[in-house]
Design goal:
With 231 residues, this protein is α/β, with parallel strands linked by helices. It is built from 10 helices and 4 strands, in the order ααβαβααααβαβαα. It has a single domain, classed as Alpha/Beta hydrolase fold, catalytic domain (Rossmann fold, 3-Layer(aba) Sandwich). Strand 3, helix 8 and strand 4 form a beta-alpha-beta unit. The radius of gyration is 17 Å and the shape is globular.
Amino acid sequence: MLERLTETGWPSQTWSAPGYDGQPIAHPYSLSRLAALLEDELRPETGPVVLVGHSMGGMLALTCAAQWSHPPAAMILLCTVPAFQLRGAAREEFLTRRLAGIDTPTGMRGAAERLIPTLVAESATPETIAQAVAVMAAISPETYRQAVTALTDFDLRPHLARMKMPILCLSGVEDRVSTPAHMAALAAALPNAAHRTHDRAGHLLPQEQPAWVAAQIHDFLTTRCIPATKI
């Protein structure tokens, strides 16, 4: 999707967060800590920044909007939620289920092969599934454990009304994690948000429909006249 977005004329880059792409993991590990590290990394930049976040990346984008000294100029949130906080037995059940097998010989690849097919639409191609499995399999067990655990403390609902920048919420009709109804509710809670859906995508919308996502982002930024210097 990054290549398609760049082709539309918007300078774009991904962020290698701590624990990913060979970067050392952050301690303590939390979405608030990651947001602070990203702000420090972007501080030398001049001009507005637009954040694009998918799933946990969307939660990170919302955290950035809540705590940065200079909030992003706009955000695109894909297949995400404003809260995932769990307590007690519900938290333990979720962590047990999501972390099962990551320290076994099959490790992260085995976990990815079990999880990824449950996240995509029925129309997802084998190539899309294989690419998503490869991405998840490359994550270290330690990073995955810390990231999944961090989700259980996430709740930004009290901050949504203060996020007045233009925001685009994108969802897949077949997403059973952050459903279109969840995304519509998120958009409704934000002062300046729009919500659009794709009827042949699941939770992995950017991988399943990269051209559509790039076109939606381009249209959003163009019509909102966001002079972004970094996406």
